[in-house]
Amino acid sequence: MSNVLADYIPSSALDYITQLLQQEHLVVKIKKERKTRHGDYRRLPNGSHQITVNSNLNYYRFLITLVHEIAHFEAYKKFGRLIKPHGKEWKQTFQRLMLPLVNPKVFPNELLPLIAKHFLNPKASSDTDVQLSRALKQYDEPNGKTYIFELPLGTIFKLYNGRTFKKGNKRVKRYECIELNTGKLYLFNPNAEVEIMD
Hints:
This protein is an alpha+beta fold. It is built from six helices and nine strands.
């Protein structure tokens, strides 16, 4: 597996991640891009455990996602299946597993303070941490997408599924956007990636 992962994570993290993955009944699969998630963990009916991570993530986002999912596996193994998916047991496990990686040999210096801050209280997705998400995006391949917070008020945009919206005012943290087909109001995270309509 380490030969495959060498194409997806920083080389300085490879030995550590390989050690974490040397678990019985743990399978890691690299998947094509999924729009709704970067990765996932699940226990399969045959008793084995599977982690999937999207292949299109940059080195740093892939590494964070992979450790996020390994933390699910380890929290399940230690605390059982009745814990909350992103509760305190998972957070503590995620923090412990990430700590050896938060250094300049693995992450660029400009990311380190944001990663350290994020892992004081990790969220269910690094995408909900606007500053970290923006900083990680600079390492992505260009994809023609824009963040909601960068759009002028009234801009028409579309999502990956083709639904179109008009950007409205900002509430405390999220933006009100009207779906054009239905007139329904939706709230968007500032760092949601969208495509501007011509």
